[in-house]
């Protein structure tokens, strides 16, 4: 058996346990302690968002977005079908309807040119997902939203440290969300953040996150007692998670650079296979700086994906694919609806392979991955 190359290998900076020990020693373990506040400031500084709030996960932050927009039964939110389930679940849990539109051929992001035609009197928001940490066409999306009176909620789960025309992903729409799940770039095991950019939503965001109470204002001394203000839940992580995340946030720049170097290596190594017409490499628009969250290839349309994955696995290389488009999944058909043809979503999603990419991935492992892919594609 050849040595395994895992798909993901969570990167630890080495300071996580030190900060956790300090939080332990401080004896402040509930949420919104010193480490959480430090993380909030750092996220605000790095993204330029108005207000960052740590959550248990990006899924939780997306649910907060739906609560903040007061999504009601029958309300519609326009989103790509090619995304993770959490983008749609957040809407469905409020009784809302995800309306799926097709993606762009180049970035696999929502096709902004199809959004306006999907708007109905029930449409409340647009939910762009920045696939692979590469920005959606936010200028066009914000313009449609403004003209049609809609909110924009960014799923920037994969987009921490990426920019669109110089602005951080997650800081452009009314609300944004990051993920710090173990499979993302900057991690805390499970974890996420809600980004609030619309000043009118800041206070309610704090309330919804604190079980529907104004406890955050109470702790700041702005009110003399805290009371139940509206429907909310508990979305704040404890300090141990924040302490772990703080170690990662301190090195967010280095973590991103390390991944970008490996992303570029793949990109160079795979150019000959693209020239042969056997696959297509990712396309990064000139106005988007990305965080190298993912390296994927799109196999030529006439190549069967499964034998390629099998061959890689036989060589000990764990490459994966995702997503089954939501419009074709059982829950997507039950709760959502597709607007227009989904041909690019259907065609591209079955051709995609994600290659192992992680902080510190050795050059030799990348060479082996590319060689195995070469062999599989020349079968
Ligand atoms: C990872 C991911 C999520 C979910 O993030 P969690 O922190 O695991 O809840 C949501 N949307 C997209 C696009 C993701 O990639």
From TrEMBL:
Xref: Pfam families:
DegT_DnrJ_EryC1 (PF01041)
Q: Does the keyword DNA-binding apply?
A: no
- The signal peptide, as residue positions, is none
Q: Which residues carry this modification: N6-(pyridoxal phosphate)lysine?
A: 184
The residues annotated as the active site are 184 (proton acceptor)
Q: What is its EC number?
A: 2.6.1.59
Name this protein carries in UniProt: dTDP-4-amino-4,6-dideoxygalactose transaminase
Gene coding for it: rffA
